[in-house]
Write a structure and sequence with these properties.
Layout: E1 11-15, H1 21-30, E2 34-39, H2 42-54, H3 66-69, E3 86-91, H4 99-105, E4 109-112
Parallel strand pairs: 1-2, 1-4, 2-3
């Protein structure tokens, strides 16, 4: 990562996180205060959640809506050190994003990754 200080101690909202490659890399190397992964596809969200846990990041269970996303939350029992960034996953469709929602999230950085 060329400029990790851009993300250090910041709240980041990623639109269209997919399987989480960019967000996991940022969480592991840049020490964001909070990282919000988002996507709209239930199967992608399931895989995203698995990838986050496999990489020893803890998902904020207060914001994870397992009924809506049809995924149950389990604790990470891995032996590696857990990262300290607060990690959240939202089911979010880009077409449904409003200025009000963006204001509620209070992110410092909004990023979109993809093809």
């Amino acid at each position: 990562m060329e400029n990790p200080e851009v993300f250090n101690c910041r709240t980041i909202l990623e639109l269209g996180s997919g399987i989480g490659l960019a967000g996991i890399a940022i969480c592991k190397t840049c020490n964001p205060k909070r990282y919000i992964f988002s996507d709209c596809h239930p199967n992608v969200l399931k895989q995203l959640r698995k990838n986050i846990i496999r990489n020893n990041l803890l998902i904020d269970s207060d914001t994870w809506n397992s009924k809506e996303s049809e995924i149950e939350t389990k604790s990470n029992s891995g032996s590696e050190e857990i990262q300290s960034s607060e990690v959240t996953i939202f089911r979010l469709d880009w077409g449904e994003i409003t200025q009000e929602l963006i204001s509620e999230i209070q992110s410092d950085i909004i990023m979109a990754t993809g093809r």
